[in-house]
Amino acid sequence: MGLLDTILGRSKPVRPDLDQLFSVPSAALTLQAGAGYRPTGLGSVCFAGVEGGGFARITQEVRELLDADKDRSGPPVAFSQDAYGYTWLLAQRAPDDTAALVNDLHAVNTLLQDGGFGPHLLCSLLGFEDAEQRPLALVYLYKRGSFYPFAPVPGGAEKRDSPRELQVRAVLGDDLRIEPDLSRWFPVWGAPGL
Q1: pTM, whole model, 2 decimals?
Q2: What are the pLDDT digits (tens) for 136-153?
Q3: How many CA atoms lie within 13 A of 27 on its CB side?
């Protein structure tokens, strides 16, 4: 970064801290004991859409990597695009194997980052539900290096349950680096894995 970049306020993109995901398995235990949410076995990665041969090669590597694991409970990986043009990768594991799911998501993120697509990574999420089957996601923001809970109200309306989100924040405050700026707790309506 040069002097002109400094004067004009431009900065290099923040390098994602992918290792933060490894704190999720212990946080999942705390979340289950403290708030009654159990993992669903679904997790996803969201990134800005990228075109070209390099990206096609990376997605093929992701498929091959996750297809190679024979202990998987469901389809290895599914790619989709949302209404905003973001690409989502959905991974699935047995609900009681959060560590393996985190390893899958970390491997995908690492492949994307090492392939030069790190600045395109937006977030990862891991799905949970309570005894009433109300969904909850722990969302990891790459560029902030922090997590936040997202609790949509069941029923299809784009409403969130803010009191539940704040309850989860209180339960997980010692386990995860929770995003302190509530305005950055973006809704991820219809996210795969939620």
Answers
A1: 0.84
A2: 999 999 888 899 999 999
A3: 27
Pairwise CA distance, residues 164 & 56, whole Å: 39
CA distance 15 to 12: 9
Domain boundaries 18-179, CATH class: alpha beta
Question: Which single residue is written with the structure tokens 């386990």?
Answer: 175
> Mapped to the 3 state alphabet, what secondary structure does the chain carry?
CCHHHHHHCCCCCCCCCHHHHHHHHHHHHHHHHHHCCEEEEEEEEEEECCCCHHHHHHHHHHHHHHHCCCCCCCCCEEEEECCCCEEEEEEECCCCCHHHHHHHHHHHHHHHHHHHHHHHEEEEEEEEECCCCCEEEEEEECCCCEEEEECECCCCCCCECHHHHHHHHHHHCCCCCECCCHHHCCCCCCCCCC
Q: How many CB atoms lie within 10 A of CB 74?
A: 13
Q: Given strand 121-129, what is the order of strands in its sheet?
A: 77-81, 86-92, 38-48, 121-129, 135-141, 146-150
Per-residue pLDDT at 109: 87
Residue-wise pLDDT for 17-44, tens only, equals: 678 889 999 999 999 999 999 999 999 9
Residue 160 sits at φ, ψ, to 5 deg, of -115, 155
The reported pLDDT for the residue numbered 76 is: 66
